[in-house]
Specification:
Helices cover 35% and strands 29% of the residues. It is an alpha/beta fold.
């Protein structure tokens, strides 16, 4: 993603963009534009912010809360609006992620479609959430 911005209050806007980049977990190239100059001369600096260097801490949630959030997200996936139940499985203590997700009851949804949706949702939710430890 390329973000073009006119930095009148550069320090504040750079901090905001760095926080935005941090939250998205992606690499963002910042092009800082000068004020009142032609386009080719207006590029003052270009730098890349690597947001994966210091990832944001994950939010720790209880198993029922994570299960509720996962079910809502699975139901948003195409063909999965009537998935009935998902399960959160606690993983080993030394794993990078301490939980996994699977569909228990697909309802009228195709089981394979629901399983693929669960994998996608698991990938997305693992970026933000960890399971509370006992």
């Amino acid at each position: 993603m390329l973000l073009l911005a006119d930095f009148r209050h550069a320090s504040t806007q750079r901090q905001w963009i760095a926080q935005l980049a941090f939250a998205s977990g992606t690499r963002i190239a910042l092009v800082l534009l000068g004020i009142g100059r032609a386009a080719p001369q207006s590029v003052k600096a270009m730098r890349t912010v690597d947001c994966r260097a210091n990832p944001m801490p994950k939010i720790r949630v209880s198993m029922p809360e994570l299960q509720r959030r996962a079910l809502l997200e699975v139901r948003k996936q195409p063909g999965c609006h009537n998935v009935q139940e998902v399960a959160i499985n606690r993983a080993a203590k030394h794993a990078e992620n301490n939980w996994s997700l699977c569909v228990l009851a697909a309802g009228a949804a195709d089981a394979n479609t629901a399983a693929r949706a669960a994998v996608r949702v698991q990938t997305v939710l693992r970026r933000d959430y960890d399971l509370l430890t006992d």
